[in-house]
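Example record for the data management plan.
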Amino acid sequence: MAKIRVHNMLFYGFHGIYEYEREQGQKFFVDVECETRDNKAAQTDKPEDGVDGAIVYNAARDVVENSRSMLLQTVATHVNEAVLKIFPYLARVKTVIRKFSVPVQGVLDDVEVEVTTENKE
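Corresponding structural encoding:
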């Protein structure tokens, strides 16, 4: 088993419960962790047996920047599904999304959502 992590990707997306959040958009920080079933890539040293961080980045960017959702859980789940579609040999994918502009009456750093999707294949 191996874990490949792509951390702190910054995307501009249109997600949130309030309509103005989905219209105006804001920054989202995203981490994706891919877990392999085995460590085949280490033995073969072939890119097709491993996980390319640039491809993970592009999959996450596509979901975050080109869709609109009310819940961050939905966005994270869609990122996981996109990555698993590209890399079907993964055991699981975990996505963490941080949102810093949160419409609350108080002080906080951010709201963070973490979703792990198990590959059922």
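Summary line stored alongside the record: The two ends are 16 Å apart (CA to CA).
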